[in-house]
Write a structure and sequence with these properties.
Blueprint: H1 18-27, H2 39-59, E1 66-69, H3 72-87, E2 92-96, H4 101-112, E3 116-120, H5 130-137, E4 142-146, H6 160-169, E5 174-177, H7 189-192, E6 196-200, E7 211-215, H8 240-255, H9 257-278, E8 282-285, E9 295-300, H10 305-314, E10 320-321, H11 334-338, E11 347-350, H12 357-386
Helix pairs in contact: 1-8, 2-8, 3-4, 5-6, 9-12, 10-12
């Protein structure tokens, strides 16, 4: 088993796709400023606009609706903060109780600036309560709604199309964080009916430090201070190598997306079943069918999260647990709390192109005895702490 096969953290960051690597290396020689009319500038501009065409085509958008950013977090901030602030100085934003920290943090900043924030609850599988969402957006003064496409911890797919239709009936723009779906599942912004969509290159085989925001024609983002790049929607020199690499891997991913999604679905289905049935005290979280093909979330009682992660790491398996926002492995998951499972640490497995059936089988084979041993150790420690 190779290191690539045992890398189970693809939902956090992915290895660089070969097509992205090729495009990145070639683009490193394009040093010209895309705003300049000389030969190097024109070559850089052509590469930038070709990449914009590729990203737009991958999500069913128009090229002039794509804004390149430094990653998913900036895309969220530009869309959620930017559009809310540009629409009015007071009002409300409606979101869900299980959003990524990028959305949560942006909404927290808006709350500090005087805006109201409403978070619609989810069911025990992490799926949006559409009726409560509809009730929240019917309130006066709602400026924007944001519903993630798929959850970053448990993989549950949200009814974004239904939420967008409800929001549109009220004249409310809808943003979706598609960090776990673009490049893995078919995503079409017109079919979804969304006005804003955020994506991040390192989530699907592109390099870190690059992302994009889709902003539907007619959406007015605030004019950013600085130069006139990205049609004055985001200033600063573009990360051309990163942008070109991200576009290349998106195009490559669509060539075999159905086959790869089916393969990963089979692997994660096996993982879900075996963890639930073979690992003592384990519980699998997230919707059993309305989910992404690559992500499995689970918890286990009576085991120290840091100790289990360290033991798995020694055996070659790379996965994560705890807080996505802080990176603390033993911190309970706010997503699980919103799903009705409080004070629980979520372990997360994200599979990718290099993952094999053999790696999954070996992982479960290593996991079960490890959990049993660590459970005994922790139980003994607790008895010793309590004393006779």
């Amino acid at each position: 088993m190779t290191d690539d096969e045992a890398y189970f953290d693809h939902h956090s960051a992915t290895p660089l796709h070969p097509k992205a690597r090729e495009a990145l290396i070639e683009a490193l020689d394009r040093f010209g400023d895309p705003l300049r009319p000389h030969r190097e500038g024109r070559a850089a501009e052509a590469a930038l606009e070709d990449a914009r065409d590729q990203v737009a085509a991958a999500i069913g958008a128009r090229p002039d609706e794509i804004v390149f950013t430094s990653g998913g977090t900036e895309s969220v901030a530009l869309g959620v903060w930017g559009l809310t602030r540009s629409r009015a100085t007071t009002g409300r934003v409606v979101t869900t109780a299980v959003e990524h920290p990028a959305v949560v943090g942006t909404c927290r900043a808006l709350a500090e600036a005087g805006y109201g924030i409403g978070a619609a609850p989810v069911d025990p599988d992490g799926r949006l309560d559409v009726d409560r969402f509809a009730s929240l957006i019917r309130a006066d003064g709602v400026l924007l709604a944001s519903v993630q496409h798929a959850n970053h911890e448990v993989g549950t797919l949200q009814p974004v199309g239904e939420a967008a239709m409800l929001a549109r009936e009220r004249g409310i723009p809808l943003h979706t964080d598609a960090g776990q779906t673009v490049g893995r599942l078919p995503v079409d912004v017109e079919a979804l009916g969304v006005d804003l969509l955020s994506l991040s290159g390192h989530s699907f085989g592109g390099p870190p430090g690059v992302g994009a925001l889709y902003a539907h024609t007619g959406i007015s983002l605030p004019v950013r201070h600085g130069d006139d790049r990205e049609r004055r929607r985001r200033p600063g020199a573009p990360n051309l190598p990163g942008i070109v690499a991200m576009a290349a891997v998106l195009e490559a991913a669509h060539a075999d997306m159905a086959d790869e999604a089916g393969r990963l679905w089979s692997l994660t289905s096996t993982l879900r079943d075996r963890i639930a049935n073979e690992v003592p005290g384990a519980r699998v979280h997230g919707h059993p069918t309305q989910r992404t093909p690559h992500l499995v979330a689970w918890s286990v009682e009576g085991v120290d999260a840091e100790a289990l992660l360290a033991a798995l790491d020694e055996r070659g398996f790379r996965l994560d647990a705890g807080s996505v926002a802080t990176g603390l492995p033993s911190e309970p998951s706010p997503v699980l709390e919103a799903m009705g499972v409080p004070n629980t640490v979520a372990f997360r497995i994200g599979l990718g192109r290099a993952t094999t059936t053999e790696a999954v089988d070996r992982f479960v084979g290593e996991l079960s005895p490890l959990v049993e041993r660590l459970s005994r150790v922790q139980a003994a420690s607790e008895r010793a702490f309590r004393g006779p």
